[in-house]
Amino acid sequence: MSTEHAIIDGFTTLKFVYEWSKVSKMGIKIHSDKINCFTFDDFGTIFPPTSDNRLSKIVNDDHDFAEMVARRALINVYRRKNNGRLRPCLLTVPVNLRDKIDFPRYKNSFGNFAIEVPVKFIPGETGMELQDILLLLKDVIQKTNTSFEKSSDDIYTLASKFHEEILEWEENEQVDVCMASSLCGFPINEADFGWGKPCLTSLGLRSSDMFWLYDTECGTGIVVPAELKKDYMEMFGCDKEFFIQSKI
């Protein structure tokens, strides 16, 4: 299945795959001869099992670890090596508007109904401790939710305002830009097409600096893939706190 993010968001994609897996597993008995259903009968021969253990991912049993990695990723982007100076940083966070708009028809709407919210880190104004960053994220998202709840009739204007604000910061060469996205709570690991739930999940690659959060298969931890510039990623290797609290 191939999709364009401009017309379909994570909610729609994962909801569709989850419902598709249920139909595939249970089967379609009514007019099944008229429906061309994709099957996975030969899936094992197309993708044979492998014992390659070189693949690794960051997993921890505690949700607190995800916050630590998020903070470290932000600081790596936030801090430049130019004489130790700090630069302004823009973090964009996607927000699902379906539960924020007071229109029932939007609750399970199909398509792209999410916006990117700008979170700004300014040297000398933004605290660098974990609690400072988390409080800033929480405050920005809460204010965004409130704004859309009060302006259900003018969604486009509000969305355009955020978009223009992000573009203005992205065009500034003195600003570092990073994106974060949380898929925690989505039924990623519940999609069972008939041969069991997935044992490995990958969200692909992005050209921009980004990190994700999504649930582990067991549901007790969080996976945090991070795709940052090489010099930013190397900072993880020098962080003792990171290796103490993580599983590679």
TrEMBL record:
Signal peptide: none annotated. It holds the Pfam family Transferase. The keyword Transmembrane helix does not apply. Keywords: Acyltransferase, Transferase. One of its GO terms (molecular function) is acyltransferase activity. PANTHER family: ANTHOCYANIN ACYLTRANSFERASE, F21J9.9. Belongs to the plant acyltransferase family. This is Anthocyanin acyltransferase. It comes from Solanum verrucosum.
